[in-house]
Amino acid sequence: MNWRRFSLVPYRLRLLLRAAFVFLMAATVGLALSVLQQEKQLSYKNYQGSFQKTRVQVAATLRHPTGQLALLNPQPASAGKALHPLLLPFAALDFDDLQKVQQAVAMSGCLAQYGNNGSLCVGIGNNPWAGGFIYVAGTFDGAQLVPHTRGDQVVDQAHRVQVKVTLRGQTYEWIAPFEESTEPQTPGHRFGGMRGRLTGFAAADVARAKAPAVKDFRGWIWQNPRCTDQTAADDDSSCTRSAFFSLRLPVGVLQDALFEKRRPVWPPEDMDRIDVHIAVLPPGDGAPLLDSATGPSAPAFSLADLKPMLLPGESLRIRRLADSVSPAAALPPLVGPVDPEDQSWHFVTTLIRHLPVDAYDVPLEAKEVIATPAGSYEVMLKGDVRSVSKSLSVVASRLVWFVGAMLAALMLAWLVIEIGIIRRIKVLIKRADDVGERVKAAKGFSETDLADLRGEDELGVLATGLHDLLRRVREDVERENIRAEQERDMWHAVGHEIMSPLQSLMVLHGAPEDESHRYISRMQQAIRVLYGRASPSEAFQSSELQVSEIDLTAFLRNVAENASCIGIQNVVFQGPSETLTARADEYSLEDVVTHVLRNAERYRAQDSAITISLEAGDTGAAITIRNRGPRIAPDMLAKIFEYGVSDQAESGANGNRGQGLFVARTYMAKMGGTIVAQNEVDGVSFVLNLQRGA
């Protein structure tokens, strides 16, 4: 019974593969959730920053004169072309001083643009005791002003301003012709252009040619002396010049209401129903230079214009802080536009909302107090963090398709591998196990039929390759057995034939002082190593060396001096003069050095020397054999020590079987040392490391 069939070892790769697919799908989902969580955290931080920017922007806008004016006049502007007065942040306008009235309307931001070069500001003061007046200021462009002669009942031959006010069922209409002023100007308020009063007459009296001046009607007009067209001369009376005018309109209904109650209601509650019409007329019947009936070119700033500043879901509430304990009525709240949820999937939005984020549940609120001349206003801005999930879910809904596609691709790949590959591999593994059992029982390779597993697909090719591999392995084993037997017989024969004459030489040169005795002893040791062994590599690896302490200095000097005896000329020893001992087998170490010298002699440059140097270390000794010549290829530095490796194409024919350096590495290892080859700048060096002696 095969125990492997009942263990998990053959199934580890399959389990690992299935676990890998499960992990990939889980990692895909986890990665998507992690990215969503990080994006939610980042979006929330960005939303917090944007919320603070919105707060600062709204507060700065409301502190600006246009914002102050919008707070004082919270009612929205009418859709028609009617002009209604605004509550100004001043008790009154100093209408007869050009600089003061221009500065006042500029600071209040009440000027509305009419046409290209006209503007109008209509308002009332914030203090009822300044009188029930309506103030008008504006600009227009026209030719040089034509004045009206004082006392003349005909007013249509001069520039004039026509004003009409309708409120509470009554209508007030005035015509104010321009009367050039002859009064000297004060030194601090000199004006170089034309200036004069706008004397008000009731329109009905002008029509009857009996027009007394209206007592409380006041007005001034100032015209710039320079032409707006820079190409025209300033003394040309027909060129266009800009003019500024201001009016104070006495409205009897408003003045009477001030004295009806002890504490009058101010500003009037019906300001949005007070209609004012302003027209600046040239001499004659020409078209008006400025007409409020045409409507403003751009609507004035209102609190509703704050809505585009708000982020989705944010709400802005503004209420006036009354002096009394009871709170004043709050103005209509403004809510930022919210994107429709139909662009995202509901379950994605729900999932994003449940992802934990730091400080996500903390409400975002900001409160500002805006001070105005008419009182202080509390501005409350609230954020809506749900908009973060809504906006993020829109993007995440698009990514769901990609995540789903990745999961579907992983599942499909898993099914293909599981059904199309793993199931068939199981059959192939079972057949291979059966083949192994039969081979093991037969104690050798036998013919195995794998024809039913062959085919044109990948597994069929694998089965065919397995069949061919088994056949080739069987043939290679048979050939290797034959070669090993032949090699063993050859070495038996060589050892037998050499041993007999070698014993005779040993008798002839047995004296220790004989120079030939040393080399005959080395030959005898080599024959003992090889004789009776299965192969040379096995012989060298299984041989036993007699390691002892030898004098390396004397040993290497003797090798260098006698190198010429083996045909290697010009060998130089460079080493210390004192004795340096190391642990080694003298004959084996001489074989190692001789093999290295023969390699160095084979590749050295002509007439160059081979140097043998000796260096002592703390615990070892290093022998370096260096020659000048070609360098060894970097990928061959380690391979040259393997058995049978030689760079000569006919190494066997020349007696070089690629075993010299193999023998050197084997002997060095048995002596506890190492040997390495190194490329130098102009040659190659072999470094032999041995352990120091006692």
From TrEMBL:
Q: Which domain of life is it from?
A: Bacteria
TM spans, by residue?
399-421
Substrates-to-products reaction catalysed? ATP + protein L-histidine = ADP + protein N-phospho-L-histidine
Work out whether the entry's keyword set contains Transferase.
yes
- Record has Phosphoprotein as a keyword: yes
Going by the UniProt record, its keywords in alphabetical order are: Kinase, Membrane, Phosphoprotein, Transferase, Transmembrane, Transmembrane helix, Two-component regulatory system
Among the record's GO biological process terms, what is one?
phosphorelay signal transduction system
Domain named Histidine kinase: residues: 493-694
Q: What EC number(s) has UniProt assigned to this enzyme?
A: 2.7.13.3
Enzyme kind, highest EC tier = transferase
- Return the SUPFAM superfamilies for the record: ATPase domain of HSP90 chaperone/DNA topoisomerase II/histidine kinase
Q: Which InterPro entries match?
A: 2C_sensor_his_kinase, HATPase_C_sf, HATPase_dom, His_kinase_dom
One annotated GO molecular function is: protein histidine kinase activity
The family database entries (Pfam families) matched by this protein are listed as: HATPase_c
Q: What is this protein called?
A: histidine kinase
